[in-house]
Amino acid sequence: GENVEQHPSTLSVQEGDSAVIKCTYSDSASNYFPWYKQELGKGPQLIIDIRSNVGEKKDQRIAVTLNKTAKHFSLHITETQPEDSAVYFCAASSEQTGANNLFFGTGTRLTVIP
Amino acid sequence: DAGVIQSPRHEVTEMGQEVTLRCKPISGHNSLFWYRQTMMRGLELLIYFNNNVPIDDSGMPEDRFSAKMPNASFSTLKIQPSEPRDSAVYFCASRPGLAGGPTGELFFGEGSRLTVL
Predict the structure, then answer these.
(1) For B16-35, what is the mean pLDDT?
(2) What is the 3-state secondary structure (H, E, C) of chain B?
(3) What is the pLDDT of residue B97?
């Protein structure tokens, strides 16, 4: 099955700086890579996703890059703000018929210091 | 839109007791997932349903765990008997799901925090 590894487990940045979280996956058949943000006491919420037919996707201060050859993908948050503080999870899945499982990384706790 | 609704939000019980967690998915979503979250193991998929039918329960830890989805708007996850190592946050999530494969966003509930003493 798929194995997703995520680094770092914790990350502290000064407000306004950038934050980068990296993930690797093992299954070359994986072709869908979402990122979820979990705030304290809440369930995870999708913030951005990328499919394997593109190498980069951007949404305002958030961007995700994908390197299929190396089997890794990254989340980039620019101009960080205190409200970006949360736990971020990467995930991978293979969008084959009947394959519904999202494999999650172990999470990165991001702290933005005002 | 009320989102995915889970109950109870918090449950404290004693070892050996039966625990039932409940979930109401978003109306119109036909895929439902139960996840368990712990510090040690992160987010683990326990079981998922498509059109009320269990598709993959390989993540269910053992026979003490069971899940049902009697209709499109309700699912339960039951632990009997409960043990201290079952203490975790249990999340239910739903997704519209498209015929022929998975895609798109998972919508999570706020979770049920279970503590087994």
Answers:
(1) 95
(2) CCCCEEECCEEEECCCCCEEEEEECCCCCCEEEEEEEECCCEEEEEEEEECCEEEECCCCCCCCEEEEEEECCEEEEEECCCCHHHCEEEEEEEECCECCECCCCCEECCCEEEEEC
(3) 67
**Could you tell me the sign of the dihedral formed by the alpha carbons of A106, A66, A82, B5, in that order?**
negative
Q: What is the mean pLDDT of chain B?
A: 91
Three-state secondary structure call for residue A32: strand
Query: What does the pLDDT average to over A104-114?
Result: 95
Interface mutation target, options B36, B108, B110, B112, chain A, most CBs of A under 10 Å? B108
Beta strand A19-25 pairing with A4-7: antiparallel
- Alpha-carbon distance of A14 to A7, in angstroms, equals 19
pLDDT tier for residue A100 given thresholds of 50, 70 and 90: low
Q: How far is B81 from chain A (nearest CA, A)?
A: 26
- Residue B4 is encoded by which pair of tokens? 């995915």
The residue-averaged pLDDT of B6-11 equals 97
Q: How many CB atoms lie within 10 A of CB A95?
A: 18
pLDDT at A98: 47
Of A95, A104, A107, nearest to B103 by CB-CB distance is A95
Residue reference for tokens 């979770």 = B111
